[in-house]
Amino acid sequence: MGITLLVCLLLRGFNLVRPLAAPAASMSPAIDPGDYLIMEGASYLWRDPVRGELAVFRTKGLLPLDQLFVKRVAGLPGERVKISDGVLLVNGEPASIENMLGLIEYRYPPGSDSSAMIGEGVEVTVPDGHYFVVGDNSTNSNDSRFWGFVPRDQIIGRIITCYWPPERSGRVK
């Protein structure tokens, strides 16, 4: 028992495995409020995030400060990204990112034109060492459209599974 506890503490301490609870609906239907999730951080020690993954990152320098957020990776360093009429375009081509319901549509919340840092139909280039992340429930998500790009060094892991509630347990897509 003592060794198991020590191993668990070490894994969590180095962000290799970490339990998380979903507080909001910004990633619904992939992740619903009240879902309990497992994040693994080992993969990102030797590779970078890829489009479509559910990245966990610190909000250092973003509001709210010093929290962990989960969003879907949509744009990689050096790519040109634009959202137009619900379609995510990467380097001018539609990016087919799906969740459990199929192809994700990216819509701006009503009246968000003045608060969006990256507005509807505006093409931006993701800076080196940064990522463009968005919530699946795009009309209810505070994400890169509103606060910009996420630095690579703030991304600590990816969601791999939901373990609670039982009816939603399994791989998160």
The CATH superfamily title: Umud Fragment, subunit A
Distance between the termini: 33 Å
Helix run count: 3
Number of domains: 1
Short description:
With 173 residues, the chain is mainly β. The protein has helices at residues 2-13, 43-46, 144-147, and strands at 17-21, 36-40, 54-58, 68-75, 80-84, 87-90, 93-94, 98-99, 102-103, 124-125, 130-134, 150-151, 155-164, 170-171. The longest helix is centred in the N-terminal third of the chain and has 12 residues, at 2-13.
Report on this model:
- This protein has 173 residues and is mainly β.
- The chain has a single domain, classed as Umud Fragment, subunit A (Ribbon), CATH 2.10.109.10.
- Helices cover 12% and strands 34% of the residues.
- The protein has 3 helices and 14 strands.
- It has helices spanning 2-13, 43-46, 144-147, and strands at residues 17-21, 36-40, 54-58, 68-75, 80-84, 87-90, 93-94, 98-99, 102-103, 124-125, 130-134, 150-151, 155-164, 170-171.
- Strands 1, 2, 3, 4, 11, 12, 13 and 14 form an 8-stranded antiparallel sheet that branches. A 4-stranded antiparallel sheet has the order 7-6-5-10, with no helix packed on it. The protein has a two-stranded antiparallel ribbon with strand order 8-9.
What topology emerges from the helices and strands here?
Blueprint: H1 2-13, E1 17-21, E2 36-40, H2 43-46, E3 54-58, E4 68-75, E5 80-84, E6 87-90, E7 93-94, E8 98-99, E9 102-103, E10 124-125, E11 130-134, H3 144-147, E12 150-151, E13 155-164, E14 170-171
